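Review form for a predicted model. The reviewer records the input and the model, then writes brief findings.
Reviewer: anonymous (R2)
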Amino acid sequence: MKTKLHSLFLGLALLAGLDYANAQVTNLGIAQAGGQSLLYWPTSTTTNYILQSTTNLASPNWTTEEYPVPVEASTVSNTTPAKFFRLIYTNPPVGVGLIPAGPFLMGNSIGDSDITDANPTNVYVSAFFMDTNLVDLSVWQAVSTYATTFNGYSFDDAGLGKAANHPVQSVNWYDCVKWCNARSELAGLMPCYYTDAGFTQVYKTGDVDAVYVNWAAKGFRLPTEAEWEKAARGGLSGRRFPWGNLISEGQANYYGNTSDYSYDRGPNGYNSIGSIGGTSPATSPVGSFDVNGYGLYDMAGNVVEWCWDWYAAPPYPAGSPYLGGTNPTGAGPTSGVRVLRGGRWDTGAPGLRCAYRGNDGPSYAGSIVGFRCLRGL
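Model under review:
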């Protein structure tokens, strides 16, 4: 069975398919059939392939055409200018989802009047892996024990959790960043965060604002605000939540309030799944609700998530992600607060919207705050 691509093309130029995990090459080919060009690749039983295209190899912005791709060839028309293609095979590590490269519309694209700090803009984000779940207490404790016992790390907060499979909370931004480095080292990956511009001193201790990021490192780190929002939307565009424009407590852990918000289907009050064992904190076991389009849990609700970026409010300073562009990394430290995303167990539906932006000082550590990690490809 042949599947038409989402976009149509005049001509085809090919690159070899790349396997990030195993360094194998998958060849692409072209054949003519009935006035059309047929783009094909070897038949496979796996669906871990991403078909991407670009119009400029000198400065490529790879756009995802298909993910996952069908196991057979796809037909394309010859009515628009040529593009270059690559077919990428990826074997995601256990516990992560692949967020494919490509552009998306970031911000308040549906025009909710109460969101005034997220003017929509076009952003291009490179592909990355994202933790399927929030970091839970058991994982936090395993890594932090290794880090402090054997590797010279220190943390401000021990980290709390309602149970081993609940998200860790009461962790500040500094500790989350250091913990990402420790997780990288434990996994044999290059850390991302350093205290010097030459990337020689791994960030392990203290509360450091002037952290240098090796964006090319393949270790674990906090997502940028743009990366977080792309992952949260799950491939959908122009939607209020990761799954659509309405929300209920069967989809996320939050505090229902149907009388004030027309898009809240409730029921009212704390979510019953989070209230088991007490309502403070009313967190829920990670992975309790359905995944979004990228296979990620809890991208709305449960605990709010630290991001890398300093928060930038209107008028946006240079470097703000809301100026658009490719792989934006946020504004400078003028605001003194870092971005928080995703909503939480004790807040209403508005805070769970994909475009909603929270913020707090990097030293803040409360029962509403957790995180998840990104890993480079």
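Findings: The chain is about 10% helix and 20% strand.
Further findings: The two ends are 31 Å apart (CA to CA).
Recommendation: see findings above.
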